[in-house]
Write a structure and sequence with these properties.
Helix content is 34%, strand content 16%. It is built from 8 helices and 8 strands. Helix 2 runs antiparallel to helix 4, helix 3 packs across helix 4 and helix 6 crosses helix 8. A 4-stranded antiparallel sheet has the order 5-4-3-8. Helix 3 links the parallel strand 1 and strand 2. It has 264 residues and is of the alpha+beta class.
């Protein structure tokens, strides 16, 4: 595992020397910050300026996630790691699986029945003051999380709609130098620590199969992204075993540079 003494090199997925990532770091002036604030700047960017959404697959380079302007747990983790490596902050990937119930409400019910029981998940661990800190709270952007909080004002525990938390009202998602979480309650299995996401995906992949992979990339993820957009706007669909959500149409202002999903 990385100790902070070596200088890690870019990898296929952690392409932190790529122009767009290097330009972002320079433009924001993040290298002028101390270690705590460097982590916070990269974390807040990935959390809110890269909105929650579904890319074509998990194993895409960080620069592609940045270009998309959206991501989910695994792709956002890749981008966050690339930014941290570009800032000289030691970090590593912790792989897991989560129960598919965590994605219910985002995954259309027609598709949910054939989804794998467990889905690949990951978070980033960052070294600060000789300790490793778990970062998972970057997955859901603030507007999306606020929509869930508004839809379920009386719930503390929620496993669905991309959230897995026992404290929906005040989940530990803000960077304050400690662990952050938003999907931990949905974890099924621990797959261990990895120096890079490249190494993780050499050992693990989503168990969809060729046909479902094709359908996901070409059709299902766009359907899911449209549902994410509607949820962010306050139109949260009902799912089995949960009380009907409160429907409130919300206005939100996308973060600078954030992309929009087609309503398909």
């Amino acid at each position: 595992m990385q100790t902070g003494k070596s200088q890690p090199q870019p990898s296929g997925l952690l392409d932190f020397a790529a122009g767009p990532i290097e330009d972002l770091i320079e433009r924001r002036g993040w290298r002028d910050l101390d270690a705590h604030d460097r982590i916070g700047a990269a974390y807040d960017f990935v959390r809110n300026e890269i909105r929650f959404g579904y890319n074509c697959r998990d194993d895409i380079p960080a620069s592609e996630v940045l270009k998309d302007g959206y991501g989910q747990c695994n792709t956002k983790a890749t981008l966050l790691m690339a930014l941290l490596r570009g800032l000289g902050v030691p970090c590593r990937l912790h792989g897991f699986t989560v129960h598919k119930t965590l994605q219910r409400g985002v995954v259309p019910e027609l598709v949910y029945a054939i989804a794998p029981v467990e889905i690949l998940h990951s978070w980033v661990e960052v070294q600060l003051n000789d300790a490793w800190v778990n970062l998972e709270g970057f997955i859901l952007d603030a507007d999306y999380l606020a929509a869930l909080q508004t839809a379920f004002p009386d719930r503390q525990s929620l496993c669905g709609y991309g959230a897995g938390t026992d404290d929906l009202g005040t989940p530990p998602v803000a960077w304050r130098g400690g662990d952050t979480y938003i999907q931990r309650a949905g974890i099924a299995r621990d797959l261990g620590l990895y120096e890079t996401p490249d190494a993780f995906y050499r050992e693990h992949c989503q168990a969809f199969g060729p046909l479902r992979d094709w359908l996901y990339s070409r059709l299902v993820r766009h359907w899911m992204n449209a549902r994410v957009s509607r949820i962010r706007a306050g139109k949260v669909p009902s799912i089995p075993d949960l009380p009907a959500p409160r429907t409130v149409r919300r206005r939100f202002t996308p973060q600078p540079g954030a992309s929009s999903f087609p309503e398909t």
